[in-house]
Amino acid sequence: MEDLADIEVEDVRQSIEYGRYIEKIGWRVESGIFLRKLGPVTIAKIQRRDLPPGWEKILKRNRVVMCKYEPLRTPVGWRQDNWPLLGTKTLRVDLRPSEEKIFNSFKKDCRYIVRKLQDTTRLPDGQGYKIQTDDFEGFYEIWRKSAKRKHLWIPGKKEFDFLVDSFGEKCFCATINGEAGAVILTHEKTAFYYYAGATEEGNRMNLPYLVVWEAMKEAKRRGMKVWDFEGIYDSRWPNKGWLGFSHFKKSFGGVEVEYPGCFTRWQVPF
C-alpha cells in the first residue's frame, strides 16, 4: 500500500464545488485564481496549487494590485509574508485500513474516551448520546454557541448555507445531541474536517472525540482514502490559540504535512 505521506492530495479549494461557493460570496474564479473586485482594482488569491499557465496575464488583465499565494512548493520571485490565510501545517489520517486498524492507531487516551462514549450510544432511547448525520441546521446552532463562547467570528448563516448547497452530496455533517458537531467536505477521495464546534457541555463530556470518529467512519463508507484535519499549530507562525485543538487533532494519530507558507505579490495594474 502506498505510504500516506506520498499520496498527492488535491486541496478542496481547487474543486468545482468550492469555486461555485466562493462565487456565491462575491469572488470570481479564473483558472484556479480567486478574484475580488474592489472599485477600480482587484485583489486575488491562489491557494494550494501550482501557478496556473498565464497567471501573470490574468492578474494584469484583471487589474490585480495584490495577490496572496499559498503554494504547494516555495515559489521564485514572491515575497513571503506573515499573514497566512490557511493553516501552514496539517495532519492527515489514512482511511484505507480497516476501521479496527484506524481506531487502534489513535493515541491511548483518545481510544479510551471514544470507547466510553460509544457505550452511552447503546443505552435505551432517551438515555444515551444520539448521533445524527446531515443536521446542518443543528450544527450551525452548535457552531454559533461555540464561537460566541470563545469570542470567535464565524460566517453568517447565509454564507454557511451557500457552502452546503454548493457541495451538495460532497458535504456531510455529524452531530451529537445538539452539543457537538463537524462539517466535512469531500474532494478527490479526501475528507476535509472543515468546520467544527461544541457547546460547553459538549466539551465537558468530550463529545468532539466521538464526532470525529463517527465522521471518519462515514467518510470511509463514502470511499474516502485520506482524512485531512485542515490545519494544526505551526511553530514557524506561532498562534497559541491553535495549541488546544491541535493537541486534540493529534490524538487521532496521522502524518503531519507542512506547506511553505504564504507569499504576496504587489503590483501596479496600469
TrEMBL record:
Family matches, as Pfam families: FemAB (PF02388)
GO MF term list: aminoacyltransferase activity
SUPFAM superfamilies, A to Z: Acyl-CoA N-acyltransferases (Nat)
InterPro entries: Acyl_CoA_acyltransferase, FEMABX, PG_Glycine_Bridge_Synth
Source organism superkingdom: Bacteria
Keywords from the named record: Acyltransferase, Cell shape, Cell wall biogenesis/degradation, Peptidoglycan synthesis, Transferase
Protein's name in the database: BioF2-like acetyltransferase domain-containing protein
Species name: Candidatus Amesbacteria bacterium RIFCSPLOWO2_01_FULL_48_25
